[in-house]
Amino acid sequence: MQHLWLIPTLPLIGFAVNGIFGKRFPKSTVSAVAVGSVVLSLLWAVKVLAALGSLDTPHVEQYFTWFQSGDLRFGFDLQVDRLTAVMLMVVTGIGTLIHIYAVGYMAHEGGYARFFAYMNLFMFFMLILVMAANYLLMFVGWEGVGLCSYLLIGFYFLKQSATNAGNKAFIVNRIGDFGFMLALFLIVIHFRSLEFSVVLPAVSGKPEETLNLIALLLLVGATGKSAQIPLFVWLPDAMEGPTPVSALIHAATMVTAGVYMVARSAPLYQAAPLAMEVVALVGLATAVFAATIGLLQNDIKRVFAYSTVSQLGYMFLAAGVGAFSAGIYHVMTHAFFKALLFLGAGSVIHALEGEQDIRHMGGLRKKIPVTYATLMCAGFAIAGFPFTSGYFSKDEILLAAHHHHPWMYWVGVVTAGMTAFYVFRCLFLTFFGDYRGHHHPHESPWVMTGPLAVLALLSLGGGFIKIPQYLQPVLPREETAHDLSLVVIASSAGLIGIALAYYLYVLKPALPDQLAQSFRGLYRLVYNKYFVDELYDAVFVRPTVTGSRTVLWRQVDVGVIDGIVNGVGAVARIAGGVLKLIQSGNIRSYATWVVFGSLFLIVAMGLLVVNTAAGGAR
Amino acid sequence: MSFLGWFLLTPLAAFLLLLLLPREQEKTIRVAALALSLAIFGLSLGLLAGEPRETDLAWIPELNIRYHVAVDGLSIWLILLTTLLTPISILISWKYIDRRVKEFHAFLLLLEFGVLGVFAAMDLFLFYVYWEVGLVPMYFLIGIWGHDRRIYAAVKFFLYTMAASVLMLASIIYVYQRAGTFDYPAILAMLASGKLTFTSLEQTLLFLAFFVAFAVKVPLFPLHTWLPDAHVEAPTAGSVMLASVLLKLGTYGILRFCLPMFPTAARENAGWIAVLAIVGIVYGALVAMVQPNVKKLVAYSSVSHLGFVILGIFSFNQQGFDGAVYQMLNHGVSTGALFMLVGYLYERRHSLEIQDYGGVSTPAPWLSTVFLITTLASIGLPTLNNFVGEFLVLQGAAQADFRWAVFAATGVILSACYMLWMYQRTFYGETPEKVTHQMTDLNGREWAAILPLLALMVWMGTAAETFLPRISAANRLILQQTTVNVPFNVQTPAPRPDVAAKEIADAR
Amino acid sequence: MQGVPLSWYLILSAILFALGVAGFLFRRSIITVFMSIELMLNAVNLSFVAFSYQFKQVDGHLFTFFVMVVAAAEAAVGLAIILTVFRNRATLNIDEINSLKY
User: What is the set of domains in chain C, with CATH numbers?
Assistant: First the structure.
């Protein structure tokens, strides 16, 4: 026993303490509890992994039966294997840095204890998600992180836009979870278990259609959580939350849960070729689609949000072409540089007292130099600049894509170019040129810049942690020929993107507006994110709400069903109203009824007697 | 007479005792009612340990009617839920009920008496008596202490239930004519041994008669329209008891009586009933989404949740049954808590319209936290109670027919929509002036009432094994009983008569 | 058997009963209506006694006594009611005493 349970439980304790007593604590105590619990969790994870050594086989710890019905048993069981180990380090490591950063970022915000309580709760669920030994427990973490995401997006609950975004995130995620749950039911039907150790080795004997269906339904879940087409719409709105939340939940950890889940189910996907193809296509389409939107956004956090969607698409592409370990590799490097991008953006926003529009920034290079330097590191990493972390993982993915279908590689390369372009567009607009705003920028305190520096180092050098090799026993990959020309092409796409951004936004700042004028229709389409939100609203949301209100409620429920019920009552009432007239109160009318009734009876009985007599006589 | 036999009479004794108290001393009455109901709850915990849990005495020997009561895994938790919610209902009425206090508490205890009897009765006649005893106090609770349209709601509730239960009475008498006894285990034994057989037509008609009586109480779409009216008009305690306990009488009855007595008919009709249940799930959720009145919203959400229970039952497998029974308990806990919290809001703001609220989180953070947890429980967040039930029900449904699970699972999405939207409009945003000075945070009494339910939500969500084994055991037996005399199902081996007899003996 | 044949009694009884019915239906005064009821009862009594005599059985007499007792009780209660009605309404016309309805 390595007491794996301590890893998620420590943040849970932090949540409970801050959630219940946080209001009475001074801020320092709240931060100590929150950061301390995550640091302890990280340390314990390191200790466990050190003790477990090479982890050639999964280490499973069974704690107690959650529920059991008939032949089905679902347990609170945790496991650690190499895949989990990577995720564990990413989650606790990045989590620790972001918690420290948030101490500085949130210092002047209300609801300090509430914020850290939610963050700790998120850590708990995220750790459950990556450490679960069965799909159901994974689903617990899955839904739990969705809840925390909802709570933190809606953290500024006085703002309607924030709570709307929270609702949207939760509900869209629920649509994904709907698919996930259906997949779980199918798995149970066909495998009678949800344990990874039972299900995954048994896939070989099952019919392919079944596996395809299961894998596709799981993918629905993944598209919800990891913001892929068609369920990506919630992630850009999720930027309503405080920036550390965007960094931790909506960039580094939670949104990669879908990739983790697909990688975890790798044997299942490998046995389901159709589903694999769909995963790759969804990933690729999302990567391109989101990258184009990212080209024209002006809110610094939204640019990075679309970038996240696009990068997640890359990871799905990796999984879809069979390079699961490359996907996880990118999960890790992306966690480094995207967390850094968001935290840096947070530092910029912090410096400008809440300004998020890059059109009102500019020239910040000298005013906030640490932020500038670290953000540039992240920019180079995401652009795939040679030997930064993004370079390694992106190459792994693109090479695998080329191996699968060459055209996927080329699309990926174009996307990489766009990525480099929009990230650097954003950075140039922020840091170069002249300051266009009217605040007094100031550098952030060391609790914020410290984590930035650590992440900058990781963004630059993190690629030397060779995840695919480490994951080889869990997620074997096909050796692809290391074609140097493909690598060069991919890297140069990134460089071209950077150069183009430099040309357009530093050298010729007037040109972009002219271009926008000349391609007005296209510009507006992309600028408005292809009107996807409006489309969903018009096709799904409005008809459902209006139809429920007018047809189902007012017409069917009140009109038809209750109409029938009240109608039965009314009929009884009317019948009574008619019959009561007999009760006239006039004695002689009663007497008349009696006389006629008696006469009727006498005649009837007389006839009966006569008939019987006649019958007897016959 | 065993412990159980006496125990079931304690609420009646408490009721009579309360009637003896002078009506002016309202404080004494409240304290006495609370103490008595707490004592009853304490006694009911004894049922978990006490053996034997059966009493079988002659009641009206001329007609072979017996005072036959028993408790098994199906009823034990429902009984505990009832005894727990009665003191809670008294607590939440402490300030809310300010007129005719004595009658109110007396009726609550009488209601408890009737409901406990329904859950324990093993004699069809006794069952029917308890069934009607439970109906009357509820009628008065709505009719006397309700809101503006209380008379309409109370009469609607009464007539709906009464009309349907008359059908059940006729069927009970018919079964008595054929079997010569009202004793339920005896009837089951006769059915199992073949001494008593129903023709196909008889089974179908009897099943339908029983089923309609229970379905109205559930309520199953499209027999649900009494529920929103009754909930909106009822006082908080009435809503809580109605949602948490009375609705369970219907689903309990289906599982206890409809299925084992008429297994063939039940299986033959499972298809369209499951479809109605699914329609109820989706329809209830959609209509709940657009309600401007928060109590109506919760009422329609009940229609949706109870649809899950029916779906689980008519999946005819272990997971479906277990999930259905667990879901009954879950709904009792979380929807009961929701109605309590809505009552708390009403006591402060004197309105049930969502638009009269907004920004409640700022003046009353704990109230909104508790409300949020309850909301999350209600939409089936894992680690809170409803998830386990919903998961098992949907799993069972998927095993019966995968399409059922697909359509029913959309209810999971929709529940998030209506609940979170309601929560947003009530608790988030800027706080209007009026709300600010009317909203206070929870006080000690309110905490005392809601905390046990919160604890149960977490407990039932994470440690379902406390409850499920007993439920599973009872359900396994019912599942076997429904597979006895199924002529068209050749794969199922008929259990040997001696085994069946032993199981029936165990069931007592 | 000598004497008056049974049919005569029955015819007389029928005539008396019909008179009672007619009186009940067509008269307005409660007192008259009341007396018509008595007349009907006595018509029935007559046929009872006639049958009883015809078949040499005592049952008819028994019933006659019953009817007489009931009639006496009815007279007592009925007259009391009529008296009260008259005091309250100052009329004995049954067409005007019809408030007990619906």
Answer: 6-96 (1.10.287.3510)
